[in-house]
Design brief:
192 residues; mainly alpha; 6 helices; 76% helix; transmembrane; transmembrane helix; CCB3/YggT; membrane; YggT family protein
Length: 192
Amino acid sequence: MELASPVGQGGLFLLQFIVGLIIFALMLRFLLRATYADWNHPIVQFVAKVTNPLCAPLNKALPAKGRWDWSAIITAIIIQALFVIAIGFLTDRSFGVPFIVLASSTEIVNQLLDMMFWLIIIQAVLSWISPGNNPNTVIFDQLTQPILAPFRRLVPPMGGIDLTPIVAILAIKLFQIVVVGSITQAAQQMIG
């Protein structure tokens, strides 16, 4: 299949979409567990049901303990690595193992940070338009409170306005640009 052709572009888009959807579900599973989200919430149950078959093999070797579901992260990295290998195959390029590991790991970290970024924005918007304890939006509170808690210790509310979402978003984006960007740049230099 020629990637420059419309059929090739469509196939690549479909592959990226499916891999992106699977990794999104795995990252969400990781965050739901890490933040102690309510396991009776329908969204949490849906994510667990969809991702359980993917995580089951690693869960046998690496059972989830406490709040960290490492099987979700490792499964996501493996799927991303397979995607990088597939891209190399489709473009007649050969990637070394160090590049595949670095590229896959940084992509997963980037996607996790992007998810945290958007969850904070959604939670902030929902807190303005639907303040109070809304059962439909409480999952966003549960997901973002542990992320925002360290920033709340550093930045107290000013005049009744909580500025911690802005500080958290700034920290997330700076970490992505400086730390993850530097590692990604090092990985790209491996392929010349």
